[in-house]
Amino acid sequence: MGLATDGGLLVSESIPSLSEDTLLGWKKMTYQQVALEVMSLFIDDISRQELKVMIDDAYSRFTHPDITPLVRVGDMWVLELFHGPTLAFKDIALQLLGNFFAYILKERGERIKIIGATSGDTGSAAIHGVRGRPNISIFILHPHKRVSHVQELQMTTVTDENVVNIAVEGTFDDCQAIVKTIFNDLEFRKSHNLAAVNSINWARVLAQVVYYVYAFLKLMDHTEKVYFSVPTGNFGDIFAGFIARNMIGSRIGRLVLATNENDILTRFIQEGRYVRSRSVKSTTSPSMDIQVASNFERYLYYLFDKDSQKVREKMEAFDRGVDIEVTPEQLRKTREEFESVSVDRGLTSETIKSTYIKYGYLLDPHTAVGFAAAQKLYERLTGGEIICLATAHPAKFPETVQDAISALPPVPVSIKKLEGMPQKLVVSQADVNEIKLIVSREIGKGERSIA
Ligand SMILES: *Cc1c(COP(=O)(O)O)cnc(C)c1O
């Protein structure tokens, strides 16, 4: 479930804490084993054995044996989260979410149609998360010829029957508007059992908590404290870090929240006011181009001492155009938990270049935002090791990398092999009715409604 029935977001009632002994006991575990331990603490409606099968299956499609390897780069670490099928960190959650959906639908004897709009990254990760799964069809709208070549191939070379790529003659905004209109047609939504693909599903956050714990376990014998620097858009990834920090305690230091020029969260941490930007700025780290951060509400719940009524009031007022302001006491607390820096495109590019020259390591532009922020704050992150989350493979953003280092990033095999593969897509006008027809046509047999 994405949104809760009252329009709010779901959070865990309590956050379990992990004792030093427990952590020591997990130290030698594989990623999949850590995932099973961490997620079991939050899940009571799937048996441990079934959960294990789903975890093992989800990560069998990753190309690195460590799933999320930790690499030394200069005097910091990089946690590579891009070894999944679409080379971005969203695979870590969406591969597992696909299994969860399939499991629950099978149990209930139901089918769903997932529909979503994408400017590139989320759509391809979602497609790869549910391809070939029974009881699910997925319809992803992307702006025709306006996503990058790699992104297009990652979506359209998936020829499974349950995947429908709709290339819309229009912009990403047109795609989004169409999806919204279709969702607001309650009758259509119900008769087709539509589900959304978005970043607010709690299961996605949970899957992301795992790599923070896993990375901590790798360094826990070598250092007193670990800091994480997180390139942030919708606050999903760093919110998972916030949960992990609450589970592990003071051995995880302040989280570094790195933003690009879309800096609503940086302004909040510096000034204690959450003020909507006038518009979204287009940057070289497009997956972080946001106006408001859809998961931020979850943090407010904890900041307001789990007073959900207060969160509701603040969020409703925010939707009417009122800024969210916190008390000096709350701001002090936030600053014990987070540091924040906004990194512009110039510094992003310089960071890609200098890291490549100095250490021979190539950062993608999103990762570079987090890496630059950690470098800026280096003197303040004392007494521990710094881990920068690498959220995408540089080959996904060849133009930006080329601008920075005057050479193209090496192309990984998983991208190379997409060239020349058969592609499947339907081109459509930016027209709601035409797209509704496509969605209806692909209706599966025995479809039933979740009443
Ligand atoms: C989605 C994304 C982000 C931002 O993650 P949030 O959870 O939205 O903060 C950063 N980098 C890449 C490559 C992404 O795809």
Distance between the termini: 14 Å
Q: Report helical residue fraction.
A: 40-55%
* Average pLDDT level: 93
Q: How many structural domains? A: 2
**Shape, principal axes of CA atoms:** globular
Adjacency order of strands in the biggest sheet: 1-2-12-7-8-11
Taking pLDDT < 50 over at least 5 consecutive residues as the criterion, the unreliable ranges are: 444-451
Q: What gyration radius follows from the Cα positions, in whole Å?
A: 21 Å
Strand content: 5-15%
CATH fold-level name of the largest domain: Rossmann fold
Bound molecules: pyridoxal-5'-phosphate
What structural class do the secondary elements suggest? alpha/beta
- Give the biggest sheet: 6 strands, mixed
Helix segment count?
19
- Total number of strands: 13
Architecture (CATH level 2) name of the largest domain = 3-Layer(aba) Sandwich
Question: What does this protein look like?
Answer:
Residues 444-451 have low confidence and may be disordered. The strands form 3 sheets. The protein has a 6-stranded mixed sheet, with helices on both faces. It has 2 domains: 87-201 and 418-450, 3-Layer(aba) Sandwich (Rossmann fold); 218-405, Rossmann fold, CATH 3.40.50.1100. The longest helix has 19 residues, at 90-108. The chain contains 19 helices and 13 strands. It is an alpha/beta fold and 451 residues long. 45% of the residues lie in helices and 14% in strands. Strand 3 (112-117), helix 5 and strand 4 (136-143) form a beta-alpha-beta unit. Bound molecules: pyridoxal-5'-phosphate. Pyridoxal-5'-phosphate is lined by residues 88, 90, 121, 199, 231-237, 287-288, 366, 391-392. Pyridoxal-5'-phosphate (PLP) is lined by residues 88, 90, 121, 199, 231-237, 287-288, 366, 391-392.
